[in-house]
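re: ur question from yesterday

yeah so i grabbed the chain u mentioned. its 406 aa long if i counted rite. heres the sequnce exactly as i have it in my notes:
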Amino acid sequence: MKLPRRAVLLVASMTVAHLPVAMRQLLVVLLGHENTGSFAAAGAASAGCGIGLALTAPFVGRLLGRLGHRPVLLGTGVIHLLALVGLAMTTAPVAFVALATLAGLSTPPVLGSGRSHLARMVPAPALSRAYAVNAVGQELLYVGGPLAVTVILLLSGPAGALLTFATIGSAGLVGTALVVPRHSAHTPVATDRPVTSGRATRRTVLGTQVAYMAAIGSMWVLVPAFATAVGHPGQAGLLVTLWSVGSLAGGLVLARRGRPGTPGGAYLTLVGTLAVTSLALALPRTVPQMAAALAVFGLALAPFLAVTDELLARSTPTPQLAEAYGWLQTAGQVGLAVGSATAGAITDHVGSTPGFLAASAALVLATAVAFTRRRSLRLPNAAPQVARVAEPAAVAPRGFAGDDAG
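ran it thru and got these structure tokens back, copy pasting raw so excuse formatting
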């Protein structure tokens, strides 16, 4: 089944809009060191971006339901753009960290908005493919983004690169705001699912996401550490690119063929596959060996993220769906922080090889969480009911946070 044209436009525009966010922490570190002369300030600014996003993502997602998607997207986009422009011109360390934190706090909820609208635009049988296409778009950012950063750095330096990405992202954000409908169309999200069961599904997904992202956070430390340990630090970027290429290939297969079986069954299979294939990461002793292991490990990444999005879409009431994706981002930021810190400590003391085993342990934990709560992942066998929801939609008194975040 082909995806609606408007859904394809939405995926394209929100991918472009997410570009400055995807590359933000890399650019903040490079720019922070150049502007302030301090790696400590650069690191604190990078952390401020992540913490700011983690704090506000679910609450800005709730505003999408209360105020409407277009006003929230454009309002946060203006603040985020001003913060990035300020970063490019600031040399005082304290001000630089403060502006980076503001950039994190004002991150436009473009992914939450776009994903929630995909659930409304796309017929239920094609929903898994829609989220697979979205995952492929995100992977393209991490394949092409670092290459674009390298080229722009040579031409204009970190400040020019940040402003370039901020401009491109702002154009994508405006495009996203124009593509999302003023009033939601018929939504294919299942409405006959008991609310308590939906909460259980979301708790399972969020708990699994923390452990999964802890593994991913550790990988961002371990891959460069491995390249340095084998005497080729300059090839760390190549290894990361091949990792993303593997994920891109897996996402393309899912987008073309669709998801086999049920969403819950696919979710369990994919997270288990990640845990198993990660075990091979502790074996390589050369860059080519690690490149092959990373490419294989990456195959299940984009499909897992796509099925995660689908599970949330099918288990969350439509007015709360954008907020649910915000909580998913928060869970991801927490996992990234834990994984990065843990992997750094392990690598300093015993090397990168045991660190990869720690990443595997995090994925085994993610699999265990999903498996022990597998009953919560069972979705109705009946076709999802269609419900008309107006935008902005009313939010239940307790909201997603009150039901699920605690």
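noticed a couple things. The mean pLDDT is 85. also Residues 68 and 309 are 21 Å apart (CA to CA).
anyway ttyl
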